Amino acid sequence: MISVEEALERVLSYVSVLDGEEKPILQCLGQRANS
């Protein structure tokens, strides 16, 4: 069994951080991230 820290490290190695953006909250409804 692996530790929680190692599991988190493995999961995060497959994810890239997206740039942030500012929008009015109502324009965010239904928005999703595409990569």
Describe this structure in words.
With 35 residues, the protein is mostly helical. The chain has 1 helix and no strands. The termini are far apart. The model has no long low-confidence stretch (mean pLDDT 90).
- Ends apart, CA distance between termini: 32 Å
How would you describe the shape? Answer: elongated
CA gyration radius, whole angstroms: 15 Å
Largest pleated sheet: none
Beta-strand portion reads: under 5%
Q: Mean pLDDT, rounded to whole units?
A: 90
Key terms:
35 residues, mainly alpha, 26% helix, 0% strand, elongated
Draw up the topology in text.
Blueprint: H1 4-12
Give the gist of this structure:
With 35 residues, the chain is mainly α.
